[in-house]
Amino acid sequence: MPVSLTIPSQRSAAESEPGEDKGWFFSADVRLRTEYLAHSFRLLAPQQDHLQFSRSQLGLRYQASSWSAEFEVQDSRAWGDKTLSPIGTDDVNTLETINAKFRKTWQVNSSSAVSLTAGRMTLDYGSRRLLARNNFRNTSNAFQGVHLRRTSANATTDLFYTMPLQRRPDALDRDSLRGNEFKLDKAGRGERFWGASYDYQYPKANSTLAAYVFRSQLSEQGSRPVADRKLWTLGSRLSWRRAGLDMEAEAAYQWGESLAGILAPKADLLDHRAWFTHIHLGIDLGSDVNFSVAYDHATGDRDPFDGRNERFDRLYGARAFELGPSGIFGAAIRSNIRSPQLRLSWQATQRQTWLLSHRWLSLDSSRDFFVTGFRRDTTGVSGDDIGRQWELRWRWKPADSPYSLELGAAYLDKGAYFKGEGGAPLNPPNVDNTEYVFAQLNWRY
């Protein structure tokens, strides 16, 4: 029986496309990471934090000619946290099945096929900004449902209907999280996520045009720390690359009903109208060096007392690949943000890559939450200047080796929002700039 020794970077550990080698495929991925943070931007946090994380994945798949079955387990743990350390279900999810699915494929003609996947699964779509299998984050989004895909020579159509898995223990059971205790995840009866997308490639223009619509419904009766929502998200994305230039533009509009926050009364659903946009333009400078400029904008709630919510909901997307490391850092998020960026990436050797990024961070609405900081000044007198974020990463992967090493650092030069110059009692001063470093080692089989 053949054995697969490679793992697709944005797919599950054992997953591959129909038509590849038949038989049994086994894979494993173990990652260890240490993170250090000083002078947090959060309202409540230790002065210094030093945590260790582990993530282990084991995958098994059987591939036949027109069907496949896959099973994958992921174990995510954290150690060394303090009372106010910002750990939660993004960091800890012990011994959980994230893929247990069956897929059947029908060949329509020589250039077209239809596949149906059912069971528990991880999902990636497009830019991964709104729907992703998480990579840098220590745990992964997973769903239970069905996924129908049709592929042709230049187009891909997706339809899916799922119940997102609730990672347990939840954030309210902090003692269990800190103890890395096991509790089986479940699909919430009050939570649904479904949608459709269409992606078309223009080979002659070396470009892709996509459109998508997502529906997110969340209505929990228990004590889980989430805010109810009933949202539609309609978006489009254009990417293009030619002669050393690359461009991407994406925008999405969101409407429906949502709560202002997790502490709001369940009956106080607000009219929800929000949007986000991303634009990116890069140029190859030669010698495997790329320079790019980008701009990210996600709306915030303009007035906390007007009966509307204009804060963009980021759904189930990933952010570390674009907005900076998450983990115990994670200053930037696609909600209530305006952020230009300059980015330089280069491949120093076949085994080493570097990334240097600088972002300006500001709130779209000074009266709404600085989401990752758990801060809100409803008067707006603190202003919107979060500061300037620097990021540096280095990756090294020896040839023909299962090991890889990554080192990174981030620095938040805090802006006027943290200075207390407006005298806002709801936003206490926190002027020391935030420093963050991490180191991680991967082993893949």
Automatic annotation (TrEMBL):
Residues 1-13 have a biased composition (Polar residues). Residues 26-425 form the Alginate export domain. It comes from the Bacteria. Residues 1-20 are annotated as: Disordered. Coiled coil: none annotated. InterPro entries: Alginate_export_dom, Alginate_Permeability_Chnl. This is Alginate export family protein.
